């Protein structure tokens, strides 16, 4: 019971902070996602460093932050595409710096340093093109909040249905606790959430929110499994402990890391 209370309280505070920062204005949105990227990348580097991999932690995080900030201003058409030349230079610097570090496995260090950028910073940078749709300077949080609500509703109800009725394993080799019953229960409740969202956020039609709920459910599950695969390869239960009862930042946003790029593609196709 104590773990359930702790998990519930942490989840409530987490949702209030995230939703509040996104809903209030674009500057809190910026601060929020910069914090998520820094904490998430640091968790990733902590995980892989347990197997004697010497990543360029500071340089990698600087690149991740640069990727987000560049896209933040470019999505608003406040700067030109030449800003991304800085990002290219920073990526090249990873290879140059590794020459002078004299580590045992230099290219593995380079690979994991850059993978964190691709896995965490790049997907989160796409949120800029969702809140500033079509290179507009007008900040609109509805499309992002709707997507997050659908992701969270699927995740929460999949957990409840899985614990209550789970019998048939979904992907036992990677995540022994996930079940088909949990998946189907999460999908059904996510579809109901899509209807509720469509009543408040008119930016998309109901049928379009339905499609977004399918993206959040199916691709989000693959995102969850991908992070589970990472943790299993490192023999750890949680990516971090910053969120009591929930683990780390990566544990809370694992589904988003793969589903967000697909959601971005969908919005580009229908806009």
Structural class: mainly alpha
Domains counted in the coordinates: how many?
Answer: 2
Oligomer: single chain
- Elements, N to C (H/E): HHHHHHHEEHHH
| Widest sheet: strand ordering | 1-2
**Low-confidence region ranges:** none
End-to-end separation: 46 Å
Percent of residues in β-strands: under 5%
Principal-axes shape call: globular
| Spatial extent as radius of gyration | 19 Å
For the sheet with most strands, the description reads: 2 strands, antiparallel
Overview of this protein structure:
The structure is a single chain. This protein is an all-alpha fold and 271 residues long. It folds into two domains: 26-138, no CATH class; 141-271, no CATH class. 75% of the residues lie in helices and 3% in strands. It has ten helices and two strands. Strands 1-2 form a two-stranded antiparallel ribbon. The longest helix has 28 residues, at 206-233. The termini are far apart. The mean pLDDT is 93.
Give a quick precis of the structure.
The chain is mainly α and 271 residues long.
Q: How are the secondary structure elements laid out?
A:
Layout: H1 2-24, H2 26-48, H3 57-75, H4 84-101, H5 106-125, H6 128-131, H7 142-165, E1 169-171, E2 175-179, H8 180-200, H9 206-233, H10 249-270
Helix pairs in contact: 1-2, 2-3, 2-5, 3-4, 3-5, 4-5, 5-10, 7-8, 7-9, 7-10, 8-9, 9-10
